[in-house]
Amino acid sequence: MFEGVYLVTLIGTAMVLAAAFSSLIAFRFGAPLLLLFLGIGLLAGQDGLGIPFDNAAASYFIGSIALAVILFDSGFGTALSSLRLAAPPALSLATLGVILTAGLFGVFAFAITDLNWLESFLLGSIVASTDAAAVFFLLRAGNLHIRERVRNTLEIESGSNDPIAIFLTIAFVELIAAGAAVQPGELAIGVVLGFLREMGVGVFAGLIGGRLIVMFVNRLKLDPGLLPIFVITVALVLFGITGAVHGSGFVAVYTAGLVAGNSGMRSTATLKRFQDGISWLAQIIMFLVLGLFATPSQFISILPVAIALSLFLIFIARPVAVSLCLLPFRFARAETAFISWVGLRGAVSILLALAPIIGGLENGRELFNIAFIVVLVSLLVQGWTIGPVARRLGLIIPPRSGPLDKVELELPGSAHHELLAYRVAAGSPVARGGRIPRWARPSLVIREGRSLKPQDAGRLLADDLVYIFVSDRYPRLLDRLFATKVSLAADDEEFFGAFTVEPDHLASEISAAYGAELREGEADLTIAQLMLARLGGHAEYADRVLLGPIELIVRDTDDKGVIDSVGLSLEPQELAPSMPLLLTAGEIKDRIAAFLRRRGVKASSGEPSPPAS
């Protein structure tokens, strides 16, 4: 008996260690980390080392708790500024996008499988959501510098679309298990009312729970070691209570994390570090358990159909859903295509695929196996190619000017202050003698391994490490003081143009000097006002505005989003290339129209049409 406890502990911890070490491979080669975790679980399972594990209920329980921890951490780490910038398109993708993807996938599944309509839409619901862990990791590990709006849209979507897929999956499982004939109208009404109830209760509970977490943390004098455990436990209590009253516990914990993470409560830095670690552990355990549950020997019979469904999801269902959802939001076609491509499926889809088995559905195991293969294909095809696709679509931008080293520390009694460490960059304003604001006086300077008082260090030199105690809401001015300015190196000059223009100059000046094509009423605007008008009222780093023979590029903005540096290119970038296998709805429409025009010209000219193949 006791030997069994030691053996289980040994095997479990060995698998976790193997998964943790595999992350080094993923960071080195940019591999999808989830794929490695699942692979370790598969190798240890029934068809690998032979560890027997076939408990769907236990797998679902472990996965649900782990997912609740991950979603709370996702909300806690989402800044309100990012949410304001990308919330409308991201939430459109997380709601309507999930429903459209599930519907399109369900229709195709019904056409090529033996599943009935309800089972096909159930399968579509299972694979409809993207995986937050995979998206966050690959955008980070790939070191991809893309526009903030695109990155934030992807991250917020992947962190918030799970509850919709969970609701749809459970609803279809209950309908199929009931076995009673349901009228389409009654079904639609029931789904809508159930969705509104679960989402409404989840959001309300999350807002209350987040405020309670903030109140407890600020008022209770808990030991610093107990505080992170207390917070994550309260989040899990909120998850359980919300689910018990028929709300979405996943929406509740995500909303609570969002409220708590943006409240400015004390010990936020400590909580973030703890939650990063516990979130990684939750991901590893969830992925390993799901991989352990799978039986690859059962995949062979359904492999062709599952691969066909996977390719349909990647190249048709996801792009069509994304294109329709992003139509109102002024995304460029290349950006829409990239968002379509970064729709990785992951652990949530495999976790939801357990629901049909737990519900006792006749084809439950087949649905699980298909969903598992869909996830594997998604990670293999999309996970390895995010970087090349971004470069192919012309979305890579130069890294933004910033500090070479910044460490957030928290000192006792400093609820709204931070101790920041900056490495002085050669050529930065402070290295050239620039003054540091009074509100950010250095506390310590480390030079060549020696600790110096600021008054003894004198003028700051390149490679000095400077510690500064500031408010946690310090402006980005401090970052720019310690960093090199955006240089005019060859790659930056190619992107930002060879000239800079003052954003407060009139647009009529660049029209007269460079032949910029202006619309009626734009001549009296400043360059910054012109760019804002053309960009829909919001500008961010690396945004571009084409004005005929020239192009204006946003080189930098201040803390309030006001343009304070503009580049001018006399050789505007050509239209970013599209990918033949990944066309947006607009590109498909344009190509069909062009094809019809060509056919019309041939018909009118009397040229014979080519024979049908």
UniProtKB/TrEMBL annotation:
UniProt keyword Transferase, yes or no: no
GO biological process: proton transmembrane transport
Pfam hit, one: CorC_HlyC
Principal place of residence: membrane
The entry's keywords: Antiport, Cell membrane, Ion transport, Membrane, Transmembrane, Transmembrane helix, Transport
Topology class, membrane: Multi-pass membrane protein
Top-level taxon of the source organism: Bacteria
Official protein name in the record: Potassium/proton antiporter, CPA1 family
Sequence ranges assigned to domain Transporter-associated in this UniProt record: 492-572
GO terms for MF: antiporter activity
UniProt source species: Mesorhizobium australicum
Bilayer-crossing regions: 6-26, 33-51, 57-79, 91-112, 118-142, 163-182, 188-213, 225-241, 277-294, 300-326, 338-361, 367-390
Subcellular location: Cell membrane
